[in-house]
Amino acid sequence: MASSEDHGHGRAGNAMSRRALLMGGLAMLGASAPVGTAWGGVRVPREKSLTLRNLHTGEKVKTVFWADGHFVPEGCSRIEWIFRDHRTDEKAEIDPALLVAMHDLQKTVGTTNAIQVVCGYRSPKTNAALRKISSGVAKKSYHIKGMAIDLRIKGVALRDLHRAAVSLKRGGVGYYPKSDFVHIDTGPVRYWS
C-alpha cells in the first residue's frame, strides 16, 4: 500500500512556533464572533470537549479543551496522555487543529459516544518497528508529529464516520474497513482507502 501520509511536512525545530501560531489563529477565529452567535452558519460553542477511550489501555477521559475562545492547557494535556504511544508511554503535543477536527467530526455524526483511539501519537521508534511489518505505515507519519488519529466511534457505522470526515474537508482521511478504523490528520487535504 502506498504511503498516503508521507508528505514531508515535519515539525522539527519549529514545533513551538507552529503550535503557538495555530493556537493563536484558532483562538482569534473563535473569538471573532460573540460566543453563542451564528457565524458562517455555525453556532460558536462556549466550550468544546472530547470524550476519548484508548483501546489499548482502557483509559477514558472526558475533558474540555476549549473554553471562552481559548484552548485549555489542562484539557489538552489530558488528551495528550490518552493519545500517548501505549508501547513506550511516550506522549507528545497534539496539534490543536486535530482536537477541533475530532470535536467537529463527533458533532457531524451526531453522537456523544466516546471516540475510540486506535492509534494517536506514535513514537519514531514504534513507527520504525511498525514499518518493518506493514507497508501501510508512512516513514514520515503524521502520527509521529501529533497530527493524526486512527479512530472509530461505537454506534456509528464506519462508512458513515468516513463520509462525515470527508465532508469536513480538512486534512487527510483514510478508510480502513478491514482494520475497523478511519484515519484523520491535519496534513494536506487528501483521501484514500
Rg, alpha carbons? 16 Å
Using the coordinates shown, work out and report the CATH topology: Muramoyl-pentapeptide Carboxypeptidase, domain 2
User: Low-confidence parts, pLDDT < 50 over ≥5 residues?
Assistant: 1-18, 27-39
Order of helices and strands: HEEEEEHHEHEHEEE
Helical content, roughly? 25-40%
Largest sheet: 8 strands, mixed
Number of separate structural domains: 1
CATH class: Alpha Beta
Number of strands: 10
Shape summary: globular
Q: How would you state the average pLDDT, rounded?
A: 85
Q: Structural class of the secondary elements?
A: alpha+beta
Tell me the number of helical segments per DSSP (H or I, 4 or more residues long): 5
Widest β-sheet, arrangement of strands = 5-4-3-6-7-9-8-10
Q: How far do the termini sit from each other?
A: 10 Å
Proportion of residues in β-strands: 15-25%
Q: What's the architecture, going by CATH?
A: 2-Layer Sandwich
